[in-house]
Amino acid sequence: RTESFVGGRWLPAAATFPVYDPASGATLGMVADCGVPEARAAVHAAHEAFCSWKEVSVKERSSLLRKWYDLMMQNKGDLAKLITAESGKPLKEAEAEVLYSALFLEWFSEEARRIYGDVIYPSAKGRRALVLKQPLGVAAVITPWNFPSAMITRKVGAALAAGCTVVVKPAEDTPFSALALAQLANEAGIPPGVYNVVPCSRSKAKEVGKALCTDPLVSKISFTGSTATGKVLLHYAADSVKRVSMELGGLAPFIVFDSANVDQAVDGALASKFRNAGQTCVCSNRFLVQSGIHDSFVKKFAEAMKRNLRVGNGFEAGTTQGPLINEKAVEKVEKHVSDAVSKGATVVMGGKRHQFGKNFFEPTLLSSVTKDMLCAHEETFGPLAPVIKFDTEEEAVAIANATEVGLAGYFYSQDPAQIWRVAEQLEVGMVGVNEGLISSVECPFGGVKQSGLGREGSKYGIDEYLEVKYVCYGGL
Ligand SMILES: *[C@@H]1O[C@H](CO)[C@@H](O)[C@H](O)[C@H]1NC(C)=O
């Protein structure tokens, strides 16, 4: 599908834009380039649909979401191929994303039936208080390219379960997964206008984002992407006081204490650093390794990288590292490496562009990294693992916390008291203790500080789309 999906219909736009395969640079297709009028029309369609969708029984909403989930599972092979084609990630990871993505629809089909209110006994006589939970209205959903499917269902599953309707603006690099989801939503019987998609090119993204986030008919903005863009959307939200969920950048520390099991730490480091070639917001950005275990960790990490990582086209069997999304992303990794090396870091492995193609970079390990280097305080979003050596627990926590963002954090330790202390002290929204992959539909995903607002997935995720209404029932 290449057209926009609004009010249950496939609609062309005045113009189209090309979507590229990041591995080869080939054009995958031309997609409707929606502008402000199309975005407004989608909001209107979503608003009209909201008036009836909020009245649909929770059981019915639940069963429609479940059907959508079933259709994703029936088409999981094709959905995975789309993800690999447009994002470049290895097919195995794309298959894992489809499953993860579908599970949000399943999870929220279940949560739809568990929206509870409260009864309160106030101090005033002859009164009872009720707390109702009501859907917010239309949600503008703006999603990134690194998880073209899962970042949509994580928001949309919760929104639809709550009784909200949505307008999705997918990233310009990866609109096909969003459109495939529209096709399946339609087949599942989700009513027209409940799930709308307006793809647009990079040059229109700003005005379309603004139109969606300032429209008076939109009640909620849910965004996953960079902290810089998140701040712009928060300004838009302020003007009309919209509810917001923001899942923004991170700078995940990965701490290995002397007490750690080094082999477990190496496995976790590989998984958390190199998933999607380092292009996830929960990827470890900084490895902090205690002096007693440092040399053994670096040596084993390098060996494991050599043994397990294979750069190539995502469709080739055995590939674990696909391309980065575009050349700008490659330039950023390159800059982080050269900055670190110029300030005294040692290249243990990799360190340069990969011969496979212009968007590919070698999995890279740096040691002797210090706090003043770019890679220690800026999100790299690529296959670069910089190792900083530390001596004490206090020092590690201080380095980990010395940033304005706080999404995920990981640490390896076999000391129960240390585990408890450090888990509490890390200023992040999610902690992996002796575990490098922590995302799961049952658990709350989100950050603190400038990494965002709100939580997605879990039993908390649905609250982001519900309003609390207090009803004071007097005269008793
Ligand atoms: C994070 O670390 C800093 C420096 O050690 C410390 O001042 C701060 O209290 C820590 N945060 C928490 C939540 O403990």
Question: Could you describe the 3D structure shown?
Answer:
Keywords: Acetylation, Disulfide bond, Mitochondrion, NAD, Oxidoreductase, Phosphoprotein, Transit peptide. Catalyzes one step in the degradation of the inhibitory neurotransmitter gamma-aminobutyric acid (GABA). It catalyses: succinate semialdehyde + NAD(+) + H2O = succinate + NADH + 2 H(+). With 476 residues, this protein is an alpha/beta fold. The protein folds into 2 domains: 268 residues, Aldehyde Dehydrogenase, Chain A, domain 1, CATH 3.40.605; 189 residues, Aldehyde Dehydrogenase, Chain A, domain 2 (3-Layer(aba) Sandwich). It has 14 helices and 22 strands. Strand 10, helix 8 and strand 11 form a beta-alpha-beta unit. The model has no long low-confidence stretch (mean pLDDT 98). It binds 2-acetamido-2-deoxy-beta-D-glucopyranose.
Please give the structural blueprint.
Elements: E1 4-6, E2 9-11, E3 16-20, E4 27-32, H1 36-53, H2 58-74, H3 76-87, H4 91-111, E5 118-120, E6 128-135, E7 138-142, H5 150-162, E8 165-169, H6 175-188, E9 195-197, H7 202-214, E10 218-224, H8 227-239, E11 243-247, E12 253-256, H9 262-274, E13 286-290, H10 291-308, H11 327-342, E14 346-349, E15 364-367, H12 374-377, E16 384-390, H13 393-401, E17 405-406, E18 408-412, H14 416-425, E19 430-433, E20 448-449, E21 452-453, E22 466-473
2-acetamido-2-deoxy-beta-D-glucopyranose binds at residues 397-398, 401, 425, 427.
